[in-house]
Design a protein that fits this description.
The complex is a heterodimer of chains A (279) and B (421). Chain A is an all-alpha fold and 279 residues long. Helix content of chain A is 80%, strand content 0%. Chain A has 13 helices and no strands. Chain A starts with a helix and ends with a helix. Chain B is an alpha/beta fold and 421 residues long. Chain B folds into 2 domains: 188 residues, 3-Layer(aba) Sandwich (D-Maltodextrin-Binding Protein, domain 2); 202 residues, Periplasmic binding protein-like II (D-Maltodextrin-Binding Protein, domain 2). In chain B, the strands form 2 sheets. In chain B, strands 1, 2, 3, 4, 5, 6, 7 and 9 form an 8-stranded mixed sheet that branches. In chain B, helix 7 packs across helix 8, helix 7 crosses helix 14 and helix 14 runs antiparallel to helix 15. Chain B starts with a helix and ends in an 18-residue tail after the last helix. The relative contact order of chain B is 0.15. The chains are: A mainly alpha (279), B alpha/beta (421). Chains A and B meet through helix 2, helix 6, helix 7, helix 10 and helix 11 of A and helix 1, helix 2, strand 2, helix 3 and helix 9 of B.
């Protein structure tokens, strides 16, 4: 009799636990998806519908707002610039960040802890504070209004993430693997490229994605440091906050979409990184 | 070749390659106005289409100023023409702007031309366009107008009664006030509430009349949609029906009139014991001393002041001309509505027009802060009015003394810094 009761109680607990689990997953998905869905609906709605309440759940496929942006002068150039800057940022932050992460995880040197802390400091100062001296220097050196110049600034912002993520990843790969490779005739370099690198590649890609997103989302430096070569975010975001509601939605949609597509395209690397990091 | 020089080489190579892509526009028009995407588009396609090679770039205030300061500090720049509000220019050092007296163009208003001198002897910017703040209401709300009230000659008491009636009828407060982070609430206090109750702004800041004004503000707030602390563009709440009766900048109400012209009315701001206070908004164009092509920049400034450009600007931005023009008959509904309301307001028997704060330099933001803080403490937090005003009075007096700004209308003129009495 007692046994049966415990059993029923156990099943109840399991069912309750399962219910909590499922609803937590559902809630988290809705957390991300519902705003995106509303963004989509409102983008594809006429201005009247956007201002009305309650909102419909099915888009009415009114392309007015999107057509407006299609005819908005300079959109394509801005999109191209955004991709160029984000791409350059991605490459540079990995080229600089990954070796730093490797060094931090493999070598002991004086001031290592201080270095780890200092690297975070690049995020400690708000950009509006740094933008003025930066812009003056950029104008004087000719880096002003170039894709490369802006990518340099964005790289600085992305490097803490690149270093700390790769540091965590390299630390997750046992030094013994490398030592084994050395005993089997590898040099330090070949051991790295043949053994460590393949293991770490998905993680590196993931930190590259962070760099991409950081660059994509950055407005202030982009608005101050570029004029002809504006990024999409600098080009649109400043003007959106004062625009009518339906154009806010459409503009937001246009800003979000490329980043979403990019992340979707490289998602398997992102998941792979979680695999490594949680090991 | 060291690694260092290699990196430098690569950097400059990439930089040159990137600059090569950039199309060199003749004049960069660096503006804080006409920022909403539709207005920016209209500026580019309609207003500036015949102005030659002009690159119109509207910006937030922060990047606008930072970029400008960077160019001034670096001593070379790309910005040709600046477009901004009077307050933006007055916060700048007049030496950084080119004197524009010899251009031969100016606004039709002597007051505006004087403001544009920024306290120097010559024009530092040229008045470009003007606007004002008005009231607007949904036609639905008209039935709740208090008995005997004329919508074109409301008093503050009638407005409060009206808001109360609408509140009762709708079951929720329907007055809308732009008290959001980007809202222009401080202008309501400086240009409307204070002049209407105290016939002053600075001198009368902590007067007994000011206490009455804030009491009225509290009464009005009781019938104001509490979400107003999130509202910055009242056109949105008019369209969505969250507010029936609102106060805002003419161009921040335009969309409502243009989308549903038959559903809304525009009308003058209310009057208090000392008249119907109201205030203009003035934007100007200027040339920074670092402009790369001075002649092209001057030509663009002249172009902006042409009557036909001014009318095109009115259509694009809902800002009115500053020169004498004959307005065409086919203007958008928002322009007609706002134009009528402003005309009625200035022509009313009890009109008490104020001026923009002048001579505050870069303390303009602090000056606004005094009013916003008073509002937040008195109306939102419910602090004692007398205590708050006496407290804020010190800050206001310090700002006036530090800048030495003389009084502006409707305050009585002063010798030296405007005193807080």
């Amino acid at each position: 009799m007692t046994a049966v009761t415990t059993d029923v109680a156990g099943a109840d607990t399991r069912r309750a636990g399962r219910w909590v689990y499922v609803s937590a997953v559902g809630l988290l998905c809705a957390w991300v998806l519902v705003p995106l869905y509303f963004l989509l609906i409102n983008t594809l709605s006429s201005p009247e519908t956007v201002n009305s309440f309650p909102k419909p759940f099915i888009p009415e496929f009114d392309l007015g707002s999107l057509t407006f942006f299609a005819n908005f002068a300079g959109m394509l150039t801005a999109l191209k610039n955004s991709i160029l800057v984000a791409g350059l940022t991605m490459i540079m932050s990995i080229v600089i960040g990954a070796p730093a992460g490797y060094a931090l995880s493999r070598f002991d040197f004086r001031g290592k802890e201080l270095f780890r802390l200092l690297i975070l400091l690049t995020r400690a100062f708000p950009l509006p504070l740094l933008a003025l001296p930066l812009a003056v220097m950029f104008i004087q050196t000719g880096l002003d209004d170039t894709v490369f110049g802006l990518a340099l600034v964005h790289t600085t912002l992305a490097i803490p993430f690149a270093v700390l993520i790769t540091f965590a990843l390299f630390s997750g790969i046992p030094l013994e693997l490398e030592e084994a490779a050395w005993t089997l005739g590898c040099t330090r370099l070949t051991a790295f490229s043949k053994v460590v690198l393949p293991l770490i590649l998905p993680g590196i890609t993931a930190s590259a994605i962070f760099a991409f997103v950081i660059s994509w989302n950055e407005v202030f430096a982009a608005a101050v440091l570029t004029i002809e070569n504006r990024t999409l975010t600098a080009f649109l975001l400043q003007n959106l906050d004062t625009s009518p509601l339906h154009l806010k939605f459409a503009g937001g949609f246009i800003l979000v979409m490329p980043a979403l597509i990019f992340i979707f395209a490289v998602r398997k690397y992102l998941f792979a990184m979680w695999g490594i990091a949680s090991r | 070749m060291t690694l260092h020089s290699r990196i430098l080489g690569a950097a400059s190579g990439a930089a040159i390659a990137c600059t090569a892509f950039a199309a060199q526009a003749e004049v960069l028009f660096w503006s804080t106005q006409a920022k909403p995407v539709e207005e920016a588009q209209a500026m580019r396609e309609q207003v500036l289409a015949d102005a030659g090679d002009v690159d119109y770039q509207p910006n937030d205030g922060g990047p606008w100023l930072t970029r400008l300061q960077a160019e001034l500090q670096a001593g070379s720049g790309t910005i040709g023409v600046l477009g901004a509000l009077h307050g933006d220019f007055s916060a700048m050092n007049p030496d950084d702007l080119v004197d524009l007296d010899d251009l031969g163009v100016m606004s039709a208003s002597g007051t505006f031309n004087d403001l544009a001198k920024l306290g120097t002897g010559s024009m530092q910017y040229i008045p470009w366009m003007q606007a004002s703040y008005i009231m607007a209401a949904s036609k639905e709300a008209l039935q709740y107008l208090p008995e005997g009230a004329d919508i074109d000659a409301l008093t503050y008491d009638q407005l409060i009664q009206w808001a109360a009636n609408a509140h009762e009828a709708a079951g929720e407060p329907k007055f809308g006030f732009p008290a959001g982070p980007k809202g222009l609430k401080h202008r309501f206090f400086q240009g409307y509430l204070y002049p209407s109750f105290t016939n002053g702004v600075v001198r009368t800041f902590a007067s007994d009349e000011a206490v009455t004004a804030w009491e009225k503000m509290r009464e009005l707030w009781a019938h104001t949609n509490p979400a107003s602390t999130n509202f910055s563009f009242m056109q949105e709440q008019l369209l969505s029906g969250d507010a029936w009766i609102v106060f805002d900048h003419t161009s921040r109400l335009a969309q409502a009139f243009n989308e549903r012209p038959d559903d809304f009315v525009a009308f003058p701001a209310p009057a208090g014991p000392t008249g119907r206070g109201f205030m203009p908004v003035l934007a100007g164009v200027a040339i920074p001393r670092t402009a790369p092509n001075m002649d092209a920049a001057r030509a663009l400034v002249e172009y902006m002041l042409k009557p036909e450009t001014q009318i095109a600007t009115l259509r694009a931005t809902n800002f009115f001309p500053v020169v004498e023009v004959a307005l065409p008959g086919d203007l958008p509904p928002s322009v007609k509505a706002a134009g009528d309301a402003v005309a009625k307001m200035s022509a009313s028997a009890d009109a008490n027009p104020g001026l923009l704060p002048a001579g505050l330099g870069d303390k303009g933001g602090d000056f606004n802060r005094v009013f916003v803080d008073s509002f937040e403490r008195i109306v939102l937090a419910g602090h004692d009015i007398r205590a708050v005003l006496d407290d804020q009075k010190g800050r206001l007096a310090a700002i006036m003394e530090e800048t030495g700004a003389p009084c502006w209308a409707p305050d009585a003129p002063s010798d030296g810094a405007c005193p807080v009495e």
